[in-house]
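Need residues for this backbone.
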């Protein structure tokens, strides 16, 4: 490890905010995989949570190793520990490999092999295929590469069930469709920086007006996709009402972003998209447990 680095530098290397958001969806997947009002066994919950967290942290570290030259020219990322020299590349690689190895060992031996292999797929997809190739190759990078970032709820589900259930794939779809309007709103705000770094993000290659249109289209698609858990019987009215309200608010943000030139709107839309994902997964869990908790208290 680098002598000049503190534990905070290595913590920053793991993108803890991103990991926390993804782990919310992964843990939700674990609990949604149980029978209504069921509990995830601690023998699965603890190693799965630690193992999946370590894999995501390793992916984040690899992402920063691969992107250090790009990060150096973007204001948003210029203070990352590899860019500033607080952590050297060799130390970062060692750290990432250690995290990935511990993750695979925990998931394979203490959870189940299916979850371990799916996690490896997500790790390779994000850390290498997206970061090394897609990010630099196509303005559809975030759409194609978004599949790797959308699988945490599936990983949580398979940790408990040991199989791939259609309901788990609905959760993947939800994040997959959420990713473009979430990330492209940020990309609109940072378009000049992406252009400077020569990254072909949609606002750079097709212009900001086209990106605003696309954010709106994907937000409409997200609204429709968010109804599927109810329409397929996965969730009930608590989720449906929440999803409709959240979706309409998201649509208001997207419409304002499309038709208004307020420079604050892209980041407001980006910020709301994070809230949206937290709350909609919370609604899935509440819907999964609350009706049975109420019935139990009345018995």
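Answer:
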């Amino acid at each position: 490890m680098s002598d000049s680095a503190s534990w905070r530098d290595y913590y920053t290397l793991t993108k803890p905010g991103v990991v926390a958001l993804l782990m919310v969806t992964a843990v939700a997947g674990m609990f949604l995989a149980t029978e209504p009002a069921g509990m995830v066994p601690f023998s699965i919950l603890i190693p799965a949570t630690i193992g999946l967290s370590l894999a995501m942290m390793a992916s984040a570290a690899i992402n920063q190793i691969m992107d250090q030259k790009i990060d150096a020219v973007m204001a948003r990322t210029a203070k990352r520990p590899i860019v500033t020299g607080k952590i050297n590349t060799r130390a970062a690689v060692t750290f990432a490999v250690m995290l990935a190895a511990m993750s695979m060992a925990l998931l394979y031996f203490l959870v189940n092999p299916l979850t371990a292999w799916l996690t490896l797929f997500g790790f390779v997809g994000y850390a290498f295929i997206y970061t090394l190739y897609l990010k630099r190759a196509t303005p559809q990078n975030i759409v194609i590469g978004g599949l790797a970032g959308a699988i945490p709820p599936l990983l949580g589900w398979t940790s408990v069930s040991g199989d791939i259930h259609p309901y788990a794939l609905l959760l993947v779809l939800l994040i997959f469709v959420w990713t473009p309007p979430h990330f492209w709103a940020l990309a609109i705000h940072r378009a000049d920086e992406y252009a400077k770094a020569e990254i072909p993000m949609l606002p750079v290659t097709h212009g900001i007006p086209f990106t605003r249109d696309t954010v709106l289209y994907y937000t409409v698609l997200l609204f429709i996709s968010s109804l599927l858990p109810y329409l397929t019987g996965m969730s009930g009215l608590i989720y449906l009402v929440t999803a409709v309200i959240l979706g309409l608010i998201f649509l208001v943000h997207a419409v304002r972003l499309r038709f208004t030139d307020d420079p604050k709107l892209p980041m407001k839309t980006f910020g709301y998209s994070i809230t949206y994902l937290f709350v909609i997964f919370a609604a899935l869990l509440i819907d999964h447990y609350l009706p049975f908790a109420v019935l139990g208290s009345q018995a």
